[in-house]
Design goal:
The chain is α/β, with parallel strands linked by helices and 180 residues long. It contains six helices and nine strands. The N and C termini lie far apart (54 Å).
Length: 180
């Protein structure tokens, strides 16, 4: 029994997301923050001409291409995990905390290259200093979510994430933008 359950007599499933990304494949919902700070929407803004460049924070990490590596998980996979977590609790499951991730890391440069391939756009990049505290690699293990919920990341390959986000981005902003 965990502290929350002990204090409130309520079981819970705590889902720890790693880099939630993408958009609803039917284009109903996607990322649009003000100000935008997430890598993939920033890249798509550059691909569409809304921004002139994408800033890469750090090119001297101990990674194959020198840029930070992160684990991206599609928002549709996250939504499915919520449904499975609710069913787990309804079936009498214990309180748990689970990682939700693809288990595969992609570097900033790989994300940019994939976005160029998906959009057909040339994306200008500006290298910058590392941000304090950013780790070189952050990739998670979601094995336990698979074991307890039967969950796996099915739409979390980088090309699918970016394709869904790009389609939503184009649908959201229409033809009033210069699309690369």
């Amino acid at each position: 029994m965990d502290d929350f359950e002990r204090a409130h007599r309520l079981k819970s499933v705590r889902l720890r997301y790693f880099n939630a990304a993408g958009a609803d494949p039917t284009r109903e919902i996607g990322e649009d923050h003000d100000p935008e700070t997430h890598l993939i929407p920033l890249i798509l803004d550059a691909a569409s001409g809304l921004k002139s460049t994408v800033q890469v924070f750090g090119t001297d990490y101990q990674t194959p291409d020198g840029t930070a590596i992160r684990d991206y998980v599609h928002v549709s996979d996250l939504a499915h995990a919520h449904v499975l977590a609710l069913q787990y609790l309804l079936d009498g499951g214990d309180s748990i905390a689970l990682n939700l991730a693809s288990g595969k890391g992609s570097s900033v440069r790989e994300v940019i290259d994939t976005a160029c391939a998906v959009t057909g756009a040339r994306i200008n990049v500006r290298d910058s200093w590392r941000r304090p505290g950013d780790p070189s690699i952050l990739v998670a293990d979601a094995t336990r979510a698979g074991e307890l919920l039967g969950w796996s990341a099915k739409r979390s390959d980088l090309a699918t994430i970016i394709t869904d986000a790009w389609h939503w981005h184009r649908a959201r902003f229409g033809d009033s933008k210069p699309w690369g």
